[in-house]
Design brief:
The chain is mainly β. Among the domains are: 51 residues, no CATH class; 76 residues, Phage tail collar domain (heat- and protease-stable fragment of the bacteriophage t4 short fibre, domain 3). This is Phage tail collar domain-containing protein. Pfam families: Collar (PF07484).
């Protein structure tokens, strides 16, 4: 082991390396602070049970963390954050928003963020279920309807009611001296229920024939399905 300068060899004190290659025959255990002033090459694993403070850049091929990411004491991706993903499987630290129930103690960070907003009670809580749904902003925008957090609505298909049909009319045109009891409308040619006469003055009432099927119609916008993931 090549050490340029050792501040203290006593346990629980600081150890300083200064741009030296250090080879240990067995993994060292140090309970104090480790200061690296220049370059340090680590071929194995660095296990830090406390805080790791880096005052300059970090460059890594992969970066793994089981907890939260902080920047200047602020969490970069707080629990409860929802993102969209094209991934087939759930990445570590994330759940698909499928409405599952979770333990309030095991996933305490996520529970602190969303509570029972999406269901649950006592020792379990639920996460949002966004499968097949489009997310909108909660609250009330200018001139818009208020939507509370976790509220749902909308439909994939809709059948128009009479009140939803635009106001309209149908005109009836009597043919001159018809001999077959028929009349024309802007909806097509219709037959009278009584025999026609050449001197008849009363032309009504008439009913146009029914048209249309009354089935629900699709109101979905063009879409592509992705996963919604929530950070825990």
């Amino acid at each position: 082991m090549s050490i340029n300068r050792t501040k203290s060899r006593v346990a629980n004190k600081d150890v300083m390396f200064q741009n030296r290659l250090t080879n240990f025959t067995s993994p060292p255990i140090h309970n104090g602070d480790l200061y690296v002033e220049r370059n340090e090459l680590i071929g194995g694993n660095l296990d830090v049970s406390g805080n790791l403070t880096v005052r300059k850049d970090i460059r890594a091929k992969n970066f793994y963390a089981s907890g939260n990411y902080y920047l200047d004491d602020y969490v970069l991706i707080p629990a409860g954050t929802v993102i969209q993903s094209a991934a087939i499987n759930e990445p570590e630290g994330w759940f698909e928003c499928d409405g599952r129930s979770l333990n309030t103690t095991v996933y305490s960070d996520l529970f602190s963020a969303i509570g029972y907003t999406y269901g649950g009670s006592n020792g379990t809580f639920k996460i949002p279920d966004t499968r097949g749904r489009v997310c909108i902003g909660a609250g009330q925008g200018d001139g818009l309807t208020n939507h509370n957090l976790s509220s749902t609505g909308g439909e994939e298909a809709h059948t128009l009611s009479v009140n939803e049909i635009p106001s309209h009319s149908h005109s009836l045109i009597r043919r001159a001296n018809p001999d077959d009891g028929a009349y024309d409308t802007n909806s097509g040619r219709q037959d009278e229920s009584s025999a026609a006469t050449t001197d008849r003055a009363d032309l009504g009432p008439f009913n146009t024939s029914y048209t249309g099927g009354g089935a629900a119609h699709n109101i979905m916008q063009p879409f592509i399905a992705l996963r919604h993931l929530i950070k825990y």
